[in-house]
Design brief:
alpha+beta
């Protein structure tokens, strides 16, 4: 093949695989209660998370742009009404092609008119606003109507599978939990760690299985206690910010992060003539001796204090407190999430599935936590349905974690 022809082919292939760099920036609240400022942050964040399903987009999230501006001692609250706010250092640093932003208003009846603007930073133009009307307590429905028009403005031709993914509504998200999570994230930005911890704590209480609220709560608490081996000891000395719930949370987080997972056995069941497979995994989750000792001490304490009278018939004035702590402990353990990741030879995650302790160990009754911790290990069954043959072939390792 002539060199000139080969060069053209290489350029065409490079163009075919080139990704579009798209930034996302918090929408501006045009009027109303300042307490609704979290909505603009949440919308930009949720839209960018949804568009991760599009292969042609390289996403630069709002947090990255905000942190960059702060690091340069620049005003992080840019004027989103003009494209020139983004065509300077922001465009150059992130090599942006487009920025997605806009504005919104939260009306007294909780209705939420949203205007999404896509700026083309290569030619300095703005596309006509994408106008959506919804409600502030249902951002995920609003986002489902925004994602596809945004991709059209950027000029992407999506597959049917990509369109389905970006338009899918997350029906599991707890509405007030979303508000508390993003209010907490704004508090973190303002270095209000006490306020952030309180918001994240409320978000976690509403939905303990939500990884975002759980990880954000960890981040806020780390500003008080760090995340090292003495974190829990520091919490015990803190009589200002410590709460019974927070103590139980940190105990159980220490337990969850200490689990080590291994595969005991695997089994494939063919589907569709071998194009897909149901994968059955038998897992073992093991705790270090020191952590297991802490768990058994807790369970022993709860068992002896679970009634108004102690075993010897002596009245226990702290019985109700112990019962509440036991319930918190059991609820936190039930919300542990087992993550199973399929890893290819390059270390990339190509499949990920999750399962709660509640379903894994049938934790549907009071006292079920004892069955989980009978030994310093717990075995469970994990089934992943309809995995493609390609993923099965490419899987070089399986990583198991608990959060």
């Amino acid at each position: 093949m002539p060199k000139k022809t080969l060069l053209i082919v290489i350029l065409l292939v490079s163009m075919a695989y080139a990704k579009v760099n798209v930034g996302f920036y918090s929408l501006t609240q045009t009027s109303g209660d300042v307490q609704n400022k979290w909505v603009g942050y949440a919308l930009a964040d949720i839209i960018s998370d949804k568009l991760k399903a599009v292969n042609e987009i390289n996403i630069i999230k709002d947090d990255m742009i905000y942190d960059f501006l702060v690091s340069r001692n620049l005003n992080p609250f840019v004027n989103t009404a003009t494209v020139t706010s983004f065509t300077g250092e922001i465009k150059e640093h992130f090599n942006l092609d487009f920025i997605v932003t806009g504005n919104y208003t939260v009306n007294p009846d909780n209705s939420l008119p949203v205007n999404i603007v896509v700026y083309n930073l290569n030619d300095g133009t703005a596309y006509p606003a994408i106008v959506i009307q919804g409600f502030a307590n249902d951002l995920y429905t609003i986002v489902s109507y925004i994602t596809h028009p945004v991709c059209n403005n950027i000029g992407l031709n999506l597959s049917i599978d990509e369109i389905s993914k970006i338009k899918q509504i997350d029906l599991t998200a707890k509405r007030t939990g979303v508000a508390n999570t993003y209010k907490g994230k704004i508090s973190l930005r303002n270095k209000d760690y006490k306020g952030a911890a309180e918001f994240f704590e409320e978000a976690y209480k509403e939905d303990p299985t939500n990884s975002l609220s759980k990880n954000s709560y960890d981040e806020a608490l780390s500003h008080f206690y760090g995340d090292g081996i003495f974190a829990f000891n520091l919490l015990e000395t803190d009589f200002v910010n410590n709460t019974p719930f927070r103590k139980q949370y940190m105990i159980t987080r220490k337990i969850s992060k200490s689990f080590k997972g291994e595969i005991l056995s695997t089994k494939l069941s063919s589907r569709n003539g071998g194009t897909h497979f149901d994968i059955e995994l038998n897992l073992r989750l093991k705790l270090p001796a020191s952590i297991y000792s802490m768990v058994t001490d807790l369970i022993s304490k709860f068992s002896s204090g679970g009634s108004v009278n102690l075993d010897d018939g002596v009245y226990n004035p702290n019985a109700s407190k112990i019962v509440n702590e036991r319930e918190q402990f059991e609820n936190n353990v039930a919300s542990f999430i087992i993550n199973v990741k399929f890893i290819d030879k390059n270390g990339k995650t190509i499949q990920q599935s999750t399962q709660s302790f509640k379903s894994s160990f049938n934790m549907n009754f009071s006292g079920a936590v004892k069955n989980v911790f009978k030994n310093d290990y717990a075995d469970t069954y994990f089934m992943i349905p309809s995995v493609t043959r390609e993923i099965v072939q490419q899987t070089s390792a399986i990583e198991i974690t608990v959060e």
